[in-house]
Each structure stands twice: as C-alpha cells, then as structure tokens.
Amino acid sequence: MPDATGLELAAHELRELDAESIVDTEFHRGRATLIANPPQISKVLEHLKTKGYTFLASLHGVDYYPEEPRLGVLYELLDMKQVDRISVKARVHSDDAHIASVVDLFSGANFPEREVYDMFGVVFDGHPDMRRILMPEDYEGFPQRRDFPLGGEPVLFTYNEEQNYGRWQ
Amino acid sequence: MSLTDDYRRREESITLSAEPAGEETHELLTLNIGPHHPSTHGVLRLLSTLEGEVVRDIKPIIGYIHTGIEKTAEDKSYWKVIPVIERMDYLGYYFNAMAFCGAIETLLGLEVPPRAQYLRVIHLELNRISSHLFWLGTSALDLGAIGVFWYALREREKLLDLFEMSSGQRMHTRYIQVGGVFEDIPRGFEEKLREFLKIMPTRADQYADLLEKNEILLERLRGTGMVDQETLLGLGVTGPLLRAAGNPWDLRKAQPYCSYDHFDFKIPIGTVGDNYDRYRVRHAELYESTKIVEQALAGLPEGPFISPDRKVALPPRHELATSMEALIHHFKLVTEGFRVPPGEAYYPIEGPRGELGCFVRADGSAKPARVHMRDPSFTNLQALAPMVRDGYIADLIATLAMLDPILGGIDR
Hints:
heterodimer; A: alpha/beta; two-stranded parallel sheet; 7 strands; B: Cytochrome-c3 Hydrogenase, chain B; three-stranded antiparallel β-sheet; 18 helices; 49% helix; 13% strand; globular
C-alpha cells in the first residue's frame, strides 16, 4: 500500500492530468483509496495501469444506503513488481447507475462487472456482455442493495408452484 | 406462452457472440455440457460451440448454486458470519474464514498472538493439502485413473480426522476466529500430525508413480490448454494456474501474512503453462505445504491461542464462575457481538486456487454492511474459454479438471 503521502502524490498526479478526476482520498488502516469521479474512471485506471498497477485483483460493488450517491464500485489494483495495492472507488447515483466498463483495460473485469450489475444494478457502459451472471436471467430487482428485503423469495412447494416465480407451465 | 415457446425464448436469449461468420457456420454444433455432469466439478453449465470435435467457443453459465451468502452475512453479527462464509469455497473452508477474520482484524486493528498465527498456518496448509488431494483424486477420475481417487481420499480422510480433533468438525470447522483460533490443539494432535507428515511425502511420490508413468494421462495433459502468462494476468488469474505459466506470484511470499515469512518453503512454477504444468505445480505444493506444517509444528510458540482482548474474544469458561466482568463480556459478545469501527478493508490471502480476498465494509454496528469475497475460482473461470478454444473436446475435460473450479466459491 502506498502510505498517506504516496496516496496524496498519486491523487495530485491524476488531478494534474484531469482536474476533475479525483474527488477525494481516503486512508484507513493502511488501505489507500482514491475516490474518482465516475465519468473519468477509465482515465484514472488507465493512468494507474501505466504507473505499474497492472493487475486488477478485485472489483466490488457496495451500497452506501441511505447516502447519495448511493452505489459504489471499488477497483482493487495491484502492482506485482512493487507489491503494492491501491483501491479506486467511484460512487454513482442509484436512479441513474452508469459507469464506463474497464473490460478493454483489464479483460478480467468481465465477470466481476457482470456480478456488480447483477447484484446492485450498476450498468457498465461498453461491456461486451452486460447480462445477469448469478441470478436468473428474468429476475427482477438487485438483491444486494441494502433496501432489498432479506428472505423475500417465496419458497416453492407443490401446492404453490402455480402462483410463484419459477413456474414452468 | 407454451412450454416450447418459452424454452425457445430462453434459448434465444443466450448469444454466442464469438461465433465465426461465413459459410462454415452451418458446420457448427452447439452442445450443452452440464449443469449436472460429473466432469464439471459441480453445478457448472458449459455452452460449447463445436466444429466436429474441435471447440470453437465456450460460455460458462453459472449461478445454479447461488445461495446469497454475501446477503446473509449482512444480517448476522460478525462472529456469526464465519460459518456461512466458510461454506463458499467448500474445499478451502479455513481459507475463507482466514480472509474474513483477517479483514475484521485489520478494521479493528487487532493483534493476533503468535501461537494463534502458527496454529492458523498449520491448519491452512493442511487444508491446502486436503484441497489439492481432492482436486488430484477427482481430476484423475476425469482422466480415467480411478485408483488415484481412492488413494488421495484415503490421505484426505486422515486430514479430516485431524480437523475433527482440533475443532470437533471434519468440514466447515469454524476453527479460525476473529483474534485467533477457536481452541488450542488437543493432546495427541501433535503425534497424529507428525505421523501424517511422515507419510504424506511418500504418498505423494506414489501418486506421481501412478500418474506420471501413465502414457494415456501424459498424452492428455501435455501441450493441452496452454495459455501464456500475459493473457492469464490480464484475466486476473492467480494461484497454481498462473504459477504453472511460469510466474512465481504467491502472496505467502510476496505479501506475507499470518507469519508466513517465518517459514522456509519454495514456490513451484511451471514452464509452458499447459495442463501438465498445472498438475505438477499442485503436486509439488503438496510437499511444500508439508514442509511448512513441519516447521510450524516444530516452532510452535507458547502463549495464548486467541487475543486477550475481551471486547472481541470470549473469556475462558472458568472465568465466568468467578468474574462478573467476564460474565458481562460473555453476555455482550454472545447476544450482540462486537462492534467494528466504520471503515473498509480488503484482505487478500493465497488460497489453494489463487488470491482469495475478502472485502468488508463496516458501518460501526455489530453486523457487516457489506461482505464480498473475491473468490479465485470465479475469476479463474474466465480463463477457461482461451484455454480450450481450438482444442479437442476431450481436452476440455482435462483443462476443466486442471482449472479446479469450486462452484460453491463461484456462485457463493
């Protein structure tokens, strides 16, 4: 992890490239996070990739309900030469959740982006195959959002299979 | 909508984007493999496009055993999350618990006592051996070598007995806790473990004798499913698959956690990255893990097996009878659980299949606001298409076996 100063330097460098790109930085328990402006996300990641963070270790979706912008997309970048990790966070509004896909930069982002779409409803523009991945194709709603009820799925028995989701007659 | 119409509609909703255009298209056959097929190692469905016997494209379709563990975790206090988290990658339960507990310990800023760290290493490495043994047995079964399955599971059985000794459970042990481990190793564990460590290398030699002198197996593994390092890195592949392609990336060495830097071990790597290298790398890891356990057992430090912080770890049973404070702590921990200060943490460890990272967002309450597991099987599955493309369908089975996907980890 870059230390707090290293994080500020990285943020400064990105701001010089594009003044709008970095909104804020966070340093907590040794974890360095750059908070990026969603429209500039590809530019930020591309720059970090040229700086040596060539491996996208993970991509998470987070729901910051009830804060707005509510949904967060987190990119965990890894520099395998320096053994250094940095994370980039972009927050998008839940009513218009769109962010650029980074599949062309990191081809491994394909499945994780689909997962974030599936669970949180963030649409990744430019993704080659933006479909649900874990939930059924015709599922409605985004189950990992904080306001999605737990246990709302009806359990299918013989007596109620006619009424319920998943019936096949 | 009639049954057939509905079926056709669903069938059409699946696109095969990589289907080559041109007059050859009519020669292509779409073959569905799985989700219930013994060689898919779980409930994995593969939509393959074949030209004769050659695989032109493959689409993994997953989600058949998605159980919403990450959602369930948001409704449980931190220490109650561990059992559900363990059920994600069901062959590497110690690793799941370790990644989760590590993330919580980072957020709490909690120090883990050295004895607990060594006990964790012992169990993690034993779990790696048991996971690799299961992989070896089932993969050999896919390739037609049934005998190895019985032998590999015989050794795994010994490991499960050891797990049962230390935690009371054979699988999904919930041994690793926030702040340390559940219980110190019992009397007799050490002798049994030493006995196992003595036979393990000779048994691994025997597997090699069974497999590596088998011409059929070698023919099926050598030169198949070859993918270069750069493609694998781009796809986010880690673990034995990446190491087989010649990249010695291992978090135990690169970013040591849980005092892995105290031990002397080697990182086996391959040369060309075909299925044979993948098999060799995992097979060699059996020896290396045995070596780590030997060293951890020899250097096991004295001291507490769990953090003495009463706000996080349960007080010892005997204190409850004499100390009011201990009783209060016990009550608070069991009813509400401990609270974690707000923050986010990502804790990566080297699982049996690659980088297993746990992301936790805490909001200050006793329940996590978000738990996300970066499961290596999920990311590694993306590499299946480049591995099998333009190879024979028989090689697809071998490649899938050597990829070692755990569907519990993929679907979570």
